[in-house]
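Predict the assembly for these two chains.
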Amino acid sequence: MPSFLSNSLSALQVSGVAYFATSFCLAQTPAITSGGVVTGAAYTQMVSPGTVVSVFGANLAPSAATAPGVPLPTSLNGVFVTVNGMKAPLFYVSPSQINLQIPWELQSSIPGIATGTFQVVVTTPAGPSAPAPVSATSESPALFTQDASGCGAAAALNAAPDGTLSVNTPSNSAAPGDTIALFATGLGAALFPQVPADGAPPSVLTQFYYGGGVFLDGRDASQSFRGLAPGLVGVDQINAQIPLGIREGCAIPVAVYTDPFVSQTAAISIHSGRGPCVDPPVQSYGSVTLSKTISSGTSSDGEVDLLTADFPAAPGLPAPEVPAVLQPGAVQVLSTEIPPSRSCPFQGYQELSAGTIQVQPKGGNVAQASPQATTSGVTYQQTLPQSFVAPGQYAISASGGAVSLSGTLTVGSPIQIQTSLAKGTTIDVSKCSSFVLNWTGGDAGTLVSATFISETQNVSDAALAEADAAAGTIVFQPVCSPGVPGSLGVTGGPVRLVVEVGPYPSNLTAFAAAGTTGAVVGAWKYRYIFDGLALLQ
Amino acid sequence: MRLHTFVLLGALQSAALIHAGVSPTITEVNLGPIPLDLYTTGNGNSYYPSCPSGYGYTVRQCIQYFVSTAPNSYTAQGITGVAIYLGVAGGFNNTTWDSSGNVQGTWVSNLQTLLSDLKSWGIQRITIRVNLWGWGESFRGSPQPPLMPIPDYGNGTTLYFYPWIPFGFLSSGTMYSCKDCPDGMDSNGAYANANNNSFNFWGWSPFFNLVQQIVATVKTTGISFEEFVFLDEVNVFDFTTEARFFYDNTRQVDVLNGARYYMGYYGFDPLTLTFSVAASNPSASGSDCASAWGDSATLYAQSAMTGAFAGGGGSFGFPVNPSAQDNLWCGGTITSANPQLQLSYPQPDVTDVHVYPCVFQINGTPSNCNSTADATQNAGMEYSDLWAFLSYRGLTGNTVIIGETQPDQNCDGFTTAMAPQNVTGYEGSSLYGNDASRVVLRVWNFPALSMCYVAPTLIAYPNGPYAQ
């Protein structure tokens, strides 16, 4: 067992013991904290069969006890835990915390990626707890971290070319091209050649055989092994190669995913030549956007005018990409990962402040946006007065923070959508017929984008088409393959259509700015949301 | 001397017949579904509407008429290879199994009679395809499989199940118009997570028994086994659950090798047990793009299947973020998030693609073909795409079978003009230029049911569009 995994479990135990000293009362029945059933690696609130899970609460055990070995027992110190009525293997029990493995057998009760619910009950000599519900899916990826907090440095081993293993730390970096081993839980139950017994480590080398991977600084890294960590219970291991040419630094983002779920983002240290890491110079950028959103078919229809802004900064942060514009008639599928229930602050990553941002339409009143604190700095999201955003010029300035800026943003014309998109409308592309979105208005040289967004049973995906506002039309032409109904590449059923008009991505307004290394740009957007539609394909 | 001349002429004629078609490419005919239950006993469902009704022919007699005795019979046109489709469990009057999954002796006997007949009527090569759903079960009568109150993978309609298939099928509803589509359309997770038919699946033994019986019967009759199409128009791009017919991950059963075993056991090339796929037509003449696998997007189903057979590191399913352009899924990427089989398989020795070249059009016809647009350019492009696929994948030694392609009849949205355009495009393609002698053009006919397809169709020697 890698030492940091052993340390990880120990750290959890220590915190549990500390809680025990203040809260244990023998006569009281156990009580699970609301939301207290979480993954043992990232403390995220989605679990799956086979995973390591922590249960937090009070009076969960008479005293602390650790499983003597494997296979793990299902009763420890007079305590047992059931998940949907099935006894779970126990790593550790204490008055405030229990670490357990969700039984593999429960995978048959999970309908694929759909979210189900497990009911967790802790029973002590004093009696059973009330059932605690926890969301459950077939996969719930979560990375172990070195300090057992679920954030920061990932539990990762560097595999040197000579085969030696060492813990990845800022003083012991991996080099591009090296292989690292990451440790996680919740990568899934589709195992080959066999699913191990509950509470037992795999008896043979056991791999996952369907989708999943590693994001390293947003890039998909190739993998040489992805399966159960030999000798460990409920722990997954991924051996991945660090891509050549990757950004180097002391905290390069790493996450693991199983389509469509993605883990929390932790960090590894990367440096050519290995050894101590060196962060590249901090790069920073900014954007300020005025938008008007008009919603229909939603639970809160209406109009919202908004100012949003952010000024991200990080070592070596690359400039925001300028997305290419789609050709007329093309439909781009955009899949979306399902993020974890918890995000981590990241060393060296900041959201800079520009102080108070002032926006004044020509001949109108000034509106102000104040920074709002986040875990990594500040962000801006200011609701503006009704009808504030309209065609015309806006003077925008900001001072009093690390970033200052000034400039004029010219907001273009809205469009008037002519296609009937009332709530309940069914858009049928199954017979290969196109969906045509028509509008009037808008300015030539501005871009209209339309996106069908499907969010069904954890799956969120989108189909995007674009056209110049002067075209007045976007055509969603499905693909109609032999034997397959016409499809836009997204999941059918309930969908919403989001139509946006704004400047082309290559034609944003550049502001005069200080305090950033890169550009600070201004944009505007009219957004029309049509919810409650149905896509038949 | 006179006798010698006769023999010589006969030999020349035989050679011409054998090579009838787009020389040196072989032309065959695809007869579609055959109602084997009725083969020797009658024609109870009024099959074969082109069969001379005044004769009161049985199914057997009708097939003989088309194959060998009609004025333009297939053998008279020089056609010596045919494909037949066999339903299961009552589908298209094929009762392969009894209600418990036992292979029916009567059905096997009828298959043997059919194959022997075909051989005696001049057919030398046989291709057999098993229809497991669609035509395979649509005539099976009652009881229809029950709708199960469980959601399909990733959506919300109900499913129905057949005892011989390890996944469910969609019922049409508000999300799909696609009845008979496998569970989990366009869902990469479906291979792993879609319901494995825990309701009425017999297990794999009845299926393997059926494969063994078919292969053994072909062996017994002595007809040349050109191809065993294990699953027709497989599509592990859109329906990843179909990959359970390669490897059933829910039961850890190596289905493909299990079936290939019987081919080898009876002395046939195991790699001629294969899967056909369908090619796609672009909506603009000559429009083409690369799929996520690097092959032409017109061959996405072939690419996905080839990727699946490659096993670990080779992936199938829907690419990440492709774009739709001119009715093709262009680009995108295949990532490790795409499903994989835990085994790899040798690629088949036969590449069977169904190609109906035309310009795609949304017009509501069954073929979605633009009936007035010239199909020649798309035909040439699609056949060249196929040669590029073979070259890229190192499969240029394969036999290429265009398992279905247009007859010169105005049927199913195709027109009489499309068949010669198909041939012209083919002759201009790099497939013809580089590999013509390894190619089989198998023309779709379907005489059993369609009122549209006149049988026997005039397709090859001496005046059909596939003659040269």
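Chain A touches chain B through 62 residues (CB under 8 Å). Chain A has three domains: 3-140, 143-279, 286-536.
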